Structure formats: structure tokens, C-alpha cells
User: Fold this.
Amino acid sequence: MTFFRKAYSVACVVLMIQFVAQLYFVAAAILTIFQADDNAEDVYSAFKTADTFAGLHRANGDLIALTILVMVGCSFGSRYPWRTTILSGILFVLLVIQSLLAYMGIPLVSGLHGVNALILIGLGGYLTGRNWAFRQVGVAPAAAR
Assistant:
């Protein structure tokens, strides 16, 4: 049971690193385009470079799905309270919604992709802090005191 709790914590940290990478990749893609000079050659080159970052953003998103599934599995294995397991599952549902928002094709709706990303990051951070398995023995999380 302790193994699964520590594995859950490690998966949470990996997830948070992946979230930071997502923010980096999308910012690199957008800023590459914004900083291009106003001529056809520079704009074309900027879009080619941005396409690389956008591809990394998408690939990392797929890896995030695997990380969340590992979290759900470890949540069951560690016998965490149902609340933790359900919130881990909700994290996966939010990721599916995130994917749908990215390809909606309606700018007003697709813009919610960024808002949903903030919710994912907040919930991921909450689950990481709340279920951290590497605390000193006998030290309860702040919310449990």
C-alpha cells in the first residue's frame, strides 16, 4: 500500500512537470509567430517553427493522459479515500474535455481550452499536495489538523 501511495505522489509530480511543459510549448509556439517580421518568408518560417512546438504540446498532452491513468490506478492500489480516486478520475474527464475543446473549431468555445487548463493545473496541484506520501511520519497535512 505504501508503494502505491509513493507511486501516486511521483505520478503527481510528473503530471505537474508535464503541465509546466504544456505551458512552455504553447507559449513558445504563439510567441514564435508573434515575433515574426511582417514579410512572407519570416511568417512562413515562424509558422514552421511554431508547428514543432504545437506538435510537442499535443504529444505531451497524450502523455498526460497516461500519467493520469497511472494516478487513477495507484489511487485504487493505495486504497486512498474514494474522494481522491474520484477526483483523479475527474482529472481524466477534464483532460478529455480539454482535447475536445482544442478541436472544436468555434473560437469562442475553443478559448475555454485555456480556462480548462487552469482547472486541470489547480486540481493536479491539489491532489499532489493533499496526497503527498513523502511527509515525515507523524506529520499530518494541514487540512487534516
About this structure: The chain has one domain: 2-133. Residues 2-133 form one domain. The mean pLDDT is 92. Residues 18 and 64 are 7 Å apart (CA to CA).
